[in-house]
Amino acid sequence: xxxxKKEIIQKTADFIEQKFKGEGTGHDWQHIYRVWKSAELIAxxxxxxxxxxxxxxxxxxxxxxxxxxxxxxxxxRQTKQWLKDAGADxxxxxxxxxxxxxxxxxxxxxxxxxxxIEGQVVQDADRLDAIGAIGIARAFAYGGSKHRLLYDxxxxxxxxxxxxxxxxxxxxxxxxxxxxxxLLKERMHTESAKKIAEKRHQVMENFLEQxxxxxxxxx
Length: 219
Hints:
The protein is mainly α. The protein contains 10 helices and no strands. The chain has helices at residues 3-20, 29-43, 50-59, 74-86, 90-102, 117-128, 132-145, 163-168, 173-179, 191-215. The chain is globular, with a radius of gyration of 18 Å. The protein starts with a helix and ends with a helix.
């Protein structure tokens, strides 16, 4: 990778670190850093452009729709502006912005549309950070920030068939496992991500088993 590309990646990392430092919903700089490093690892096993992967991983949450009233395009807009200011070429800007626009989970019944291998790598890395031990912690951090119930035994899990339905959902954090987190293992694109997801998925299964037992005062 040439020095100019490395400089743009570092400038982007510094910018994002400052923007998300201290964020408390689980979408903080540390989340983005983990996605970045995980994406780099996955990219090393795939035939892809690691420059595009790094930039898309760093910018994937620049304007998450959850914090922009469901606007799926704001992240793409902010990505384009930042990369233009950072000196990236037009082709890079368009490729990264397209990944940022597509990366979010949009509902159990909504098909993923991520045509590029670079986008698939970043999406896998982002989803890996949503499952396992850290994924559990992030789910409850976000649920708490939105004043959501931990668990409602009478709640019916909804497999949202549209992004609008998913975005408007106010289900409990435990319901979120069934409506998203437990589904991610089967929605990984790359072989390396699939292997990591298997272990992290089991961590969530074990957690839920323990959670239900404690809920009933049995353990």
